[in-house]
Amino acid sequence: MRKKLLIVIPNLGLGGAQRAFHDHSVELQKRYDVTEAVFNLDEPNIYPSGNPLENMDVAGGGSALRKAANFAKRITRLRALKNRLQADVCVSHLEGADYVNLLSKGREKVILLIQGSKVHDRNISGPLGWLRKKVMMPALYKRADRIVTVSRDIMPEIIEAFGVDARKVLTIHNSFEVERVWAQAQEALSAEMRAVYDAAPALVTSARLAVQKNQAPLLDIFADLLRRRPAKLIFIGDGELRNELISKARALGLRVYDVWAQKPLTPDYDVYFIGLQQNPFKFIHPADLFVFPSGWEGFPLALGEAMICGAAVVTTDCPTGPREMLAPATATPAAPIRAAEWAEFGILMPMLTEADTLKTDEKVWTDTIEQLLADPAERQRLGQLARRRMEDFTHKKIFQRWSELIEEVLAI
C-alpha cells in the first residue's frame, strides 16, 4: 500500500513557498497518497495541484490573546486531521506550519522544510522575533525527525543556532520545471514590448516588490548607468513597496512606466513596472542581463528560472543560495565581498544593505553592468553556462532525493 503523506502550509496565494508546496504535492503524489492542508483559505489557491486540500479554517491575526487561541486551535485540528487520515509522514512548509506540525506530533514522522535563512531574515525582529529565534525554534526544532534546508548555508543555522542534532539536518535544493520554463521563455513579446527591448539594452529583475528583495538601490545604480549609456530597467512583479519604488524612480529623474496607470506602453520610458505576469520567462529570455539585488534568500526560484531562460545573471552574494547556484565549488566567504566575483555560472556582487559601503558597492554594480553590456560574447557565454547549471535541479533529480528521505524516516 502507498504511504500517506500530509503536507501543511499556513496559507496559499502567491509566493515562492506556495510554488514549492505545489511542486511537492504534484511530484510526491507519484509515489505517495498526498493530502494538502492549510490553516485557512484567506488567499486564493493560485497553484492548484489536483490533490485533496483540507482547510482547517482557523483565521490568523487579532489580539495576542486571539492569536494564542487560534494557535492552540490549529494544533488541535491538525492533530485530528493526522489521525483521521492516518498520516505516515507530515511535511510542513514555512515556520508557522512547522510549530503546529511539531506540537501536533503523534505516531507519524515529522519533516520540516526550511526555505529561508532564519538568522539573516530582517522580518524576524523585535520581541516576537527574539521569542521565535531564542525560544521556540531551539525548543521545538529538536523534535523533528528530519529538517530539510533548501540551501547548504542554512544548515549551520539550524545546527549551531538552534541546537539541532546534525544527523537530523540535510539539504535538498528547490527544484525547477526546466523544460516548461524554457518552452515558455520562447513565447514572443508583444510588438509594444519588443520595441522597448529594441530601443536599448534591457536589464530585467523579477521578484516581489518587498523589503527582502531590496530593489531600491537598483534604481540608484540604474540612474548612474544611464548617465554613461542608454539602457532600460524592467521590473516584473508586484508587492507592498510598489508605490515607494515608483516614487523613488521618479525622484531620481527617471521616466517611469507603470502598468497600473494604464498609459500606452512605448519605448520612451527608462524604467518599466509591468506587474505580475502569467509568463515572466518571455520577458527574461530576451533581456541583456538579469539583475537580482536581494538582501537575503533561501534558494531563490526567480534566480534559477532566469538561469533556465539563458540569461546572464548578476546577483548579490546574499545569504543564502546565489553562491551555491553560481559558484558551487566555493565556500561562503567569512566577510561580505566588496568586488564583483566572476563565478563559474554568473556574477556574484556586493550586498546593497550596508549604509557605510553602499555608495562604493553601488559603483561596483554600475561598473560591472556597464562592462557586461559592452561584451555580448561574455553575456552569451554566461547565459549558456547558467542554463547548463540548472540541469542539476530538475524535478526528477530533486524529488528522487525526497523519496529517499521519506523512505528513510519511515524506516526509523
Automatic annotation (TrEMBL):
Any Pfam family the entry gives: Glyco_transf_4
Record-annotated Glycosyltransferase subfamily 4-like N-terminal domain positions: 15-180
Signal peptide: none
Record-given protein name: Glycosyltransferase involved in cell wall biosynthesis
Originating organism: Hymenobacter caeli
